[in-house]
Amino acid sequence: MTEQQAEHERHRFERGTDGPKVIVVGVDGSDSSLRAAAYAGGLARRQGALLAVVYVQPVLAAGAALGVPVAQATDEIAEDLIAQIREAAERVKGIFEVRWEFHTFRGDPFNGLVQAADELKADAVVVGASEQAGHRIIGSVAVRLVKAGRWPVTVVP
User: Where are the domains of the chain?
Assistant: First the structure.
């Protein structure tokens, strides 16, 4: 090994950064997504990582065409999720400190979480297990994220 190769190997890994720096968790208000957020919060606290809470606002073209106020409804869901997260963070303030951010993306849940994980440079993704029976046939968001193989994915029941 040359001196230059040895120098490159010494600088390949940083000390003290062996855990995730950014953990993305997908939330949609379902019980399983809120359990995933709680799990991801504990993981972020233990690792000293940033918790990026992501809500993907669905774009329902058919609903919008029929005059349904889809954007307003999904904005209200996002505001409610932020309020729940702030309330939970306030309850544990001084006991468990977690750095967190809330992000919204538009689209279908899978592509929205992929976009979020890419843009936020996620080291890990946490999602709740699907509560919909149809996902056994077509595949859940969690299964699709695992199959994408781009980040470690934790699926919380």
Answer: 19-156
For 47-101, write each residue's pLDDT tens digit: 999 999 998 887 765 445 555 555 556 677 767 777 777 776 666 666 667 888 8
Give the angle 80-70-136 at the CA atoms, nearest 5°. 80
Torsion angle, CA of 59/40/145/112, rounded to 10 degrees? 20
Dump pLDDT digits (tens) for 119-143.
999 999 999 987 765 445 456 888 8
**Residue ranges with strand state E in 75-117:** 99-106
Neighbouring CB atoms inside 10 A of 12's CB total: 7
Q: Which residues pair with 125 in a beta bridge?
A: 24, 153
CA distances from 122 to 7, 24, 57 (A): 28, 6, 19
The CATH class given to the 19-156 domain equals alpha beta
Task: Sort residue 104 into left (φ over 0), alpha (ψ -120 to 50) or beta.
Answer: beta
CA-atom Rg of the chain in angstroms: 18
How far is residue 27 from each of residues 36, 76, 81, 89, 132, measured CA to CA in Å?
Answer: 8, 14, 8, 15, 15
CA distance 141 to 103: 18
